[in-house]
Specification:
This protein is α+β, with helices and mostly antiparallel strands. The protein is about 50% helix and about 30% strand. It contains 2 helices and 5 strands. The protein has helices at about 5-35, 110-150, and strands at about 40-50, 55-65, 70-80, 90-95, 105. It has a 5-stranded antiparallel β-sheet with strand order 3-2-1-4-5.
């Protein structure tokens, strides 16, 4: 095989891997959002945004009241782009899973990360199409052309 073809396969493989990572993150966040069914007003008490290699992570903690009790919840999300953040002391609406507090908290940061992961996964897959189609036509042409000539 030529070095060019091996490089091409490597690039397509990396795009597929990136797309799968993005799909996994989007699926995980969508499942968390589906579990979090109760909306509560909350106050952000702590935010830590970090860049690690090519990824961003955001850990936010919240204080809110649910069924007469003061609760704390947190969310830790990551993505390939820096998503919106909230500042300590800001008020926001959270979606919570009352059966799994404080772990299941879906905040505006998670919503932004879900959007970025979904769009990123689709764009990676769409980007693969122009790379893969010429190879398919080159290798499939000997088999397709005799069928078209009849």
């Amino acid at each position: 095989m030529s070095e060019l073809f091996i490089g091409f396969i490597f690039i397509v493989g990396m795009m597929v891997a990136l797309s799968l990572i993005q799909f996994h993150q989007a699926r995980k966040l969508k499942a968390m959002k589906a579990r979090c069914t109760v909306s509560v007003p909350a106050e952000c008490t702590y935010v830590d945004v970090r860049r690690q290699n090519r990824h961003w992570s955001c850990n936010a903690r919240y204080s809110f009241e649910y069924m007469g009790q003061r609760c704390r919840g947190s969310n830790n999300v990551w993505g390939t782009k820096r998503f919106g953040t909230i500042k300590p002391g800001e008020k926001t609406e959270l979606l919570i899973n009352p059966d799994c507090l404080p772990d299941d908290v879906f905040d505006p940061i998670a919503e932004d990360a879900l959007h970025h992961a979904s769009v990123g996964a689709v764009l990676c897959l769409v980007g693969i199409i122009p790379l893969v189609m010429p190879i398919i036509f080159i290798y499939a042409a000997p088999y397709i052309m005799p069928l078209l000539s009849h």
